[in-house]
Amino acid sequence: MISIDEMKQLLAQSDPASVIAFVESFQPFDLANCVEKLDPAEQLQLLGLLPPDISAEIVEYLEPVLQYRILNQLEEKQTSLVLNEMSSDVVADMMLAIHRNQAEKLLALLPEDYRRKLQTLMTFPEHTAGSLATIDYIAARSMWTIERTLQHIRKIGHEAEITSYVYVTGNKGELVGVVSLKNIILAEPKTLLSDIVSGDVISVPASMEQEEAAELLSRYDLVALPVIDAKNRLIGVITVDDLIDVIHEEATEDIQKLGGSQPLTGTYFKSSVFHFYRKRIIWLLILFVAETYTGTVLRHYEDTLSEVIALSFFIPLLIGTGGNTGTQTVSTLVRALAVGEVQFRDIFRVIRKEVTTGLMTGATISLIAYIRALILGVESNIGLVVGVTALAIVIWASFVAAVLPLILHKLKADPAVISGPFITTLVDGTGLIIYFTIAKILLGL
Amino acid sequence: MISIDEMKQLLAQSDPASVIAFVESFQPFDLANCVEKLDPAEQLQLLGLLPPDISAEIVEYLEPVLQYRILNQLEEKQTSLVLNEMSSDVVADMMLAIHRNQAEKLLALLPEDYRRKLQTLMTFPEHTAGSLATIDYIAARSMWTIERTLQHIRKIGHEAEITSYVYVTGNKGELVGVVSLKNIILAEPKTLLSDIVSGDVISVPASMEQEEAAELLSRYDLVALPVIDAKNRLIGVITVDDLIDVIHEEATEDIQKLGGSQPLTGTYFKSSVFHFYRKRIIWLLILFVAETYTGTVLRHYEDTLSEVIALSFFIPLLIGTGGNTGTQTVSTLVRALAVGEVQFRDIFRVIRKEVTTGLMTGATISLIAYIRALILGVESNIGLVVGVTALAIVIWASFVAAVLPLILHKLKADPAVISGPFITTLVDGTGLIIYFTIAKILLGL
Q1: CATH number of the domain where residue B80 is located
Q2: Which terminus of chain A is more exposed, N or C, with fewer CB under 10 A?
């Protein structure tokens, strides 16, 4: 960790050389964390005196609003240099987060060509492949020789963010393929790029959902993903670190959905209590209303309950076990669907697997339930009812939790619907019916 | 998708050229899926006639046992070529998955130097950084000139898997830093590597947990992670695709744990029903036994229940809502802890946030609960009991679900303990006590 106090002291001494020397031993990510904790004046002082490429790397990790505040208050020359060094996808995100007029002012500091490309990036909706693309890649024409390509790399290479590959385009800017820097080094100077280009490059349309792009990247073990427009023209390239962020975000969303709430849009502390409320109350209310069905069921069996009050002792236990079984099954399956291990066409294999497992866990639980009922001192025939119900509810929960995620996946419905609390609620009402039906039969009520 | 039938037909025609032409338009991952569906004889025919580098790329995606079967049955010359082209981390995994004698036989086909390095890789336990490392990287000495480094790259570069960076080592093999291929191209031929090496490279010890390595990679936006031994000597390099697999695995494990089961060790269909049973029954039983406590509570309030049987109608509704609230909170927090958004020292901020949210959702639910009770036709004072209990249980569940994950995280206990079903079970028993206490007070029983 970087000592904030040491940083503050060095800044107070106003000795640029020692500040730069201090900064050089740390990573941009950690420096950004440190910058967040400095006073606004110190932030400007630090980012104003560092070389623009280092300032740019640090600023990239800050929140858009802070990025803008700093860039807006630095001297114009430094602002322009830092802005030029920043990743174009980060700059586009910042521009979209600030007011249009503020963005215009900053954009005016950039060369026209770069500005135009940035403005294209800014047109892609959030969560699409296009919104993640950077334009700081190296492109070359397929008719160029290796020699000419190397000259080009030497000329523009120091500004590129994507440094392992050269993207090869045809006459109309269409993506022809990709050549690794390694293969450029291995090739003879007179070779044409078209001779060594690897043509089966995987590219994605700008409109593709970012999670789909992330899935392609993981499946094919790629380190960068070129983004094309409808005419196959290269628009930009997505780097692996942006897709790793997407993978993390998707997992966080899946976990929050499985927990029975709509996903938060920000991180934990950056989301307000009201945001928490809004994301949670909807499902809580839906499930609450659905759960009131249990009241109707119990009221229906009021006479049975009054007759054998001991039956009520086991209600939470039995429906709780059903809910637990359902939650286990649903979380395993929803994840397996998300990573593509299971498809709808596997539905019968899934049912067989889950119900067989339910039969085994149910039988185990059933035995313990029977013993527990006897220990609690209820009559042995009530113990029998509890044991048989435990088995039936576990199997029922396994079946429901196996089938519903697959069907909703097939219907392309929001997977958020199938959460642990959802299955628990569903099993609660139906489980009570199973319980009282078995009780009436076995106790002859 | 690749047509299996077309592949089978082409193989039946025994025309190597047309098979190779057909294969070239597909990705290794998809070809591997196709190979899995061929007959054993066709598998051998296909992988025997393809160029060794393409066969190697395909074989890398197969399961270790199938990898071995194929490598063992190909002609020895082809086996040796394919084995040499395969990623060293994949080869090490395969060697560890097969019998020692089988591994010895295959290892004998490799050059001695490579074999020794592979044997080192094979010593690292599963789930450590060392077990993910590949030795197919390019290393250079810090005293080399750019010219000499380029010669070296031209000599060994075509075998390297890591192609964007050159790892620079000192006299004793210790890791000095890293230079990108781009910077090598940009530098003058006579420059020494020591002059352009970036010294603040992030490396990890071979014994580091793989998830920690994955976290470093995401945090610092890296594309490869060098692995060192206790003496700072470079052992290998982890590529980003292996760490993306780790990120996926960790998320899958977290989801399964939050769902109340121990994580499966394999994918969905590759895990047996008995494996499912073993991973699920432990928590089901623990929770079942814990949940029997609800029976004890209900038995304790048997007189109250007999007196006002209508109270039992709301038991599943009230404890269900508590469980839903707890599950929402716990899933959000466990994920926030996993990705490092929340720490133990934030405990009071977390409690304030969760309890305030609980107050708001609880008040909403409470109102609906009161109305629902009136609609169900119970007396209005029972409606009041239900409304007040709903509020109390939601706040209680928010508090418990906020505190427990943080405490267990602090104690470095297995986070699997805090699952949705766990919180649900905990809230069930305590929720009943809250319910009957409020009922006794408000109804004057």
Answers
A1: 1.25.60.10
A2: N
If asked whether residues B70 and B194 sit together in one domain, one would say no
Looking at the fold, whether B234 and B283 belong to one and the same domain comes out as: no
- Hey, are the CB atoms on A268 and B333 less than 8 Å from each other? yes
> What pLDDT score does B416 carry?
64
pLDDT for A415 equals: 63
Within a domain: A263: no
The pLDDT confidence band at residue B395, using thresholds 50, 70 and 90, is very high
d(CA B327, CA A374): 32
Burial tier of A152 (Cβ tally within 10 Å: 0-12, 13-18, 19+)? middle
CATH of the domain at B286: 1.10.357.20
Q: What is the pLDDT of residue B35?
A: 93
B216, B314: one domain: no
- Chain A hits for B387, CB-CB cut-off 8 Å, are none
Residue of B nearest to A240 (CA): B223
Residue to mutate among B357, B366, B436, with most A CBs inside 10 A, is B357
Residue type, A335: R
Which CATH number fits the domain that encloses residue A195? 3.10.580.10
Do A82 and A59 contact (CB within 8 A), yes or no?
Answer: yes
B259/A291 CB distance under 8 A: no
Q: Report CB contact under 8 Å: A280, B245.
A: no
Taking residue B135's Cβ as centre, other Cβ atoms within 10 Å add up to 24
Å between B177 CA and nearest CA of chain A: 13
- pLDDT, tens digit (0-9, with 9 covering 90-100), for B153-186: 988 877 777 778 999 999 888 999 999 888 898 8
Chain B hits for A334, CB-CB cut-off 8 Å, are 255
**In the structure, what pLDDT confidence band is assigned to residue A176 with cuts at 50, 70 and 90?**
very high
Whether A241 sits inside 8 A of B223 (CB atoms) is yes
Do B346 and B430 have their domain in common? yes
Q: Where is the domain boundary, A67, A92, A123?
A: A123
Task: With beta carbons under 8 A apart, name residues in chain B contacting A314.
Answer: 295
In a domain, B368, yes or no: yes
Q: Looking at the structure, do residues A233 and A352 belong to the same domain, yes or no?
A: no
Q: pLDDT at residue A426 above 70? A: yes
Range of the domain at A87: 4-123
Please report the DSSP string for A222-239 in residue order.
-SEEEEE-TTSBEEEEEE
**Residue A133 belongs to a domain:** no
Q: pLDDT (tens digit, 9 = 90+) per residue, A239-268?
A: 999 999 999 999 999 999 988 888 888 888
Residues B366, B370, B371, B376, Cα dihedral to 10° = 130
Residue B149 CB partners (closer than 8 Å, separation 6+):
B140, B166, B184, B193
Residue A106 CB partners (closer than 8 Å, separation 6+): A68, A71, A72, A79, A83, A95
Q: Using alpha carbons, list the distances in angstroms from residue B262 to B253, B255, B265, B417.
A: 8, 10, 9, 9
When CB atoms are compared, the residue of A181, A281, A428 closest to B181 is A181
Nearest to B342 by CA among B360, B354, B328: B354
Query: How far is Cα A364 from Cα A390, in angstroms, rounded to an integer?
Result: 9
Q: What does the pLDDT read at residue B40?
A: 93
Total domains present in chain A: 3
A 10 A CB-CB count for A124 gives 21
Residues A118 and A142 in one domain: no
Q: CA B328 to CA B336: how far, in whole Å?
A: 12
Mean pLDDT of B397-423: 87
Q: Which of A90, A123, A156 is the last residue of a domain?
A: A123
Find the CB nearest B317 among A200, A295, A321: A295
Both B281 and B315 in a single domain? yes
* Nearest-CA distance A101 → chain B (Å): 32
Containing A253, the helix (H) or strand (E) segment is helix A240-258
Nearest by CB to A421, which of B327, B332, B432?
B327
B288 and B431 in a single domain? The answer is: yes
